[in-house]
Specification:
This protein has one domain: Nitrilase/N-carbamoyl-D-aminoacid amidohydrolase. By secondary structure, the protein is α/β, with parallel strands linked by helices. Strands 5-4-3-2-1-16 form a six-stranded mixed sheet. The chain has a six-stranded mixed sheet with strand order 8-9-10-11-14-15, with helices on one face. A two-stranded antiparallel ribbon has the order 6-7. Helices cover about 25% and strands about 25% of the residues. It is built from six helices and 16 strands. Strand 12 (about 210-215) and strand 13 (about 220) form a beta hairpin. This is Amidohydrolase.
Length: about 270
């Protein structure tokens, strides 16, 4: 089977899991009602806490995390592949993990991915971000198996590092992902361009659910969840409000794009002087 329907859930996360979890589940149910067999949510799906101390206090271990349990049960109830863009998970170290989960239609955790690249920047609108102070960077790239295709897992700032997506495509991924909480400032400048580039250069579908709106302490995220075809066409765009987008994924389009421009087969080793 080479086709399936994918959905992105776009929302505005509160600073507490228990506030956001219900609305997130409602949107996932809405996506299922529209026929989606694979549903993706944004980075930090249920919590965007700007305070480092509070983030670490609220970051529960995976085995005790209420959102992990709720999303597992929801995936099994709906019989869908549920890709939670990330949850803030406590670890035994001094920093938390920014961890994505892929739940099977049986509610099992089919794959996990900890965000590798940390967003440590001061952007021109005056906001400062130092993710590495709060989160332990991941060290393992992940390609997960869906019934239809191989799925490369990434999170937000990872999208600026093409080698990660290239490695996933070379490993067999035909769908690349980048669930995000992109800032409004950087999103307006770069979001569409970066995601289209990752699709085109690898001949892959790209699916990226985004946070949107104004969060605690005035942080603004860009929204515009996207589903992009391997030739670079935008199949669905979530705009700037909470909601759901759906798109039909025809994996024959991967072969078509790669037949026209087979750059995935033309990588070469080189030296740099």
């Amino acid at each position: 089977m080479n086709t399936f329907k994918a959905a992105c859930v776009q929302l505005t996360a509160d600073r507490d899991d228990d506030v956001t979890l219900g609305p997130a589940c409602d949107l996932i149910r809405q996506a299922h009602g529209l026929g989606a067999e694979y549903v993706q949510t944004p980075e930090c799906t249920t919590m965007m806490e700007p305070n480092k101390k509070l983030t670490l206090e609220k970051a529960l271990p995976e085995k005790n995390h209420p959102s992990v349990k709720a999303f597992s049960e929801l995936a099994a109830e709906l019989g869908i592949w549920l890709h939670i863009g990330s949850l803030i998970v406590g670890t035994q170290e001094k920093r938390a993990a920014n961890r994505a989960f892929l739940f099977s239609p049986q509610g099992e955790i089919a794959a996990r991915y900890d965000k590798i690249h940390m967003f440590d920047v001061v952007i021109p609108d005056g906001q400062s971000y130092r993710e590495s102070a709060t989160f332990r960077p991941g060290e393992q790239a992940v390609v997960a198996k869906l019934p239809w295709a191989e799925l490369g897992m990434a999170i937000c700032y990872d999208v600026r590092f093409p080698y990660l997506f290239r490695a996933q495509a070379k490993k067999g991924a035909t769908i690349l992902t980048a669930p995000a909480a992109f800032t409004k400032f950087t999103g307006e400048a770069h979001w569409h361009t970066l995601l289209k580039a990752r699709a085109i250069e690898n001949g892959c579908f790209v699916i990226a659910a985004g946070q949107c709106g104004v969060h605690a302490e005035g942080r603004e995220t860009y929204g515009h969840s996207l589903v992009i075809a391997p030739w670079g066409e935008i199949l669905a765009d979530g705009g700037d409000q909470p909601g759901v987008i759906v798109a039909d994924i025809d994996l024959d389009r991967v072969k078509q794009a790669r037949d026209m421009v087979p750059s995935i087969n033309h990588d070469r080793d080189f030296t740099l002087s």
